[in-house]
Amino acid sequence: MEESLGAFGQDPVWLILVKTVLIFLVLVLLTLFNIWWERRVVARMQHRIGPNVNGPLGLLQSLADGAKLMFKEDIIPKAADKVVFVAAPVIAAVPAFVTFSVIPFGPDVQVPFTDITTPLQLTDMPVAVLFVMAVASIGIYGIVLGGWASGSTYSLLGGLRSSAQMISYEVAMGLALVAVFLYAGSMSTSEIVDAQQDWWFGLILAPSFIIYTIAMVGEVNRAPFDLPEAEGELVGGFHTEYSSIKFAMFFLAEYINMATVSALATTLFLGGWRAPFWIDRLYSGFNEGYWPVLWFFGKVLFFIFMFIWLRGSLPRLRYDQFMNFGWKVLIPIALGWTVAVAFIRMLSIDDGVDRQWLLIGIGVLALGFLAAFLFGSDAPEEPEPDYEPTPGGFPVPAMPAGGPVRGAAAPLTFEQPVPTTTSGARAGAAGKEATADG
Fold first, then answer.
1. Burial state string for 57-87 with b = 16 or more CB within 10 A and e = fewer than 16
2. Which of 59-73, 231-245, 363-377 has the lowest mean pLDDT?
């Protein structure tokens, strides 16, 4: 491990600053592009045009929106805690940038116009993935403090919802990563990418990949798990009272967090910067130079498109359904799969059982448990006893015969009025009287 991590920490100060500035610019530009891309894709799904005025194909629309937010009036509510109210967006946005410091964009390359060779990664450490999880968790403080400091009930409820949601789905996300650590034998992001030279972990650890994919959608508060921003209940969630650049920072943090979880999924499950579909077996140059940067961002944009696709396709879940799914379905399955992977690794070390058949058996069991959780039939409910209405009590309508009605309501039918000739006779008599008077 020390040999593989020895390439880090050797760069001159100016190169470290250049890498830092490049990561910052890439994240800001990627955010502007993702906002434009989301609006265009959702517009196409809804048979609309989307942004197409500012710049070619409307590419500068996100920049125009950001400039508009920067110059809008900044309002701080009278009941707000001003210090915490101002600090909360910063606390939410800064960790989103810091997490990209350990993401590998490619292998070692030579810096142009110099003889310096450096990895396309700012830094790495033996516990890099835990560092990402720890720093990303700090962003929760920005959200819950922003909701609390606003002095608004709606914002407070949105902040509490968001913190509970993110903490709940971080548990499942962390359990999904344990299997990757067991197979890679390291928590370093660069070493995890090196461990996927032959097979991606997204294939051999498919349940972990699926669990992580579901958990990352809930982690970043995106549809159909965007419960903290349920405008029908909470107006706008934790950022209801925010405006101007502070609101823009929350918005920026959300989209950078989307890129962060997508980059982490690419690194841990899809081979990182390595060429897809093993085309490097045909030409080894696909994993050299700056080709890996294209593969890496192509995979990241695949996950971003998945976020957009879900937002344009699925309705928002109910909050109790969402939390039940996280605690009663996702976490138990992740725990069971983690134990199974640890058991497989133990047997493979002892060479006691053919690992291929063991993996197939564990996969079948996992699918069976998943089907039982998702499609299991509910226990039959006992019919409720009929009670006589209490004299003088509240007038409650009687229950329908056979218990409460389940499923869609029966369509309403109305009796058609029977046509009568009385009105026609009166109209004719009135017409004759008017003719006689004339």
1. ebbbbbeebbeebeeeeeebbeebbeeebeb
2. 363-377
> Distances in Å between the alpha carbon of 44 and those of 37, 39, 276, 306, 312?
11, 9, 28, 15, 10
CA–CA distance, 73 with 244 (Å, rounded to integer): 6
pLDDT, position 302: 93
The pair phi, psi for residue 118, each rounded to 5°, is -140, 145
Task: Give the span between the Cα atoms of 419 and 417, in whole angstroms.
Answer: 6
CA atoms of 223 and 17, how far apart (whole Å):
36
Per the DSSP assignment, residues forming a β-bridge with 106 are 120
> What is d(CA 225, CA 326) in angstroms, rounded to the nearest whole number?
11
Q: Which of 217, 192, 211, 195 is nearest to 130 (CA)?
A: 192
Tokens representing residue 186 in the block: 């390291």
Closest CA to 271 of 260, 280, 259: 280
**The three-state (H, E, C) secondary structure of 251-262, written as one string:** HHHHHHHHHHHH
Whether 317 contacts 224, CB under 8 Å: yes
Q: Are 275 and 291 in contact (CB under 8 A)?
A: yes
| 176-226 residue pLDDT tens | 999 899 888 888 888 899 888 888 888 888 889 999 999 989 888 888 888
Contact of 404 with 397, CB cutoff 8 Å: no
Q: Which helix (H) or strand (E) holds 120?
A: strand 117-120
Rounded to whole angstroms, the Cα distance separating 59 from 27 reads 16
Please tell me what DSSP assigns to residue 226: -
Cis peptide before 224 (omega within 30 of 0): yes
Question: Among all chains, which residue has been given the structure tokens 């309403």?
Answer: 412
SS3 109: strand
List, for residues 300-355, the tens digit of each pLDDT value: 999 999 999 998 888 888 888 888 888 888 999 899 888 888 887 777 665 555 65
Half-sphere exposure of 140 (CA within 13 A, CB side): 18
Q: How far apart are CA 264 and CA 270, in angstroms?
A: 9
d(CA 332, CA 236): 32
Distance CA(59)–CA(242), nearest Å, equals 26
Q: Which single residue is written with the structure tokens 């003889």? A: 115
DSSP-derived letter for residue 359 is: H
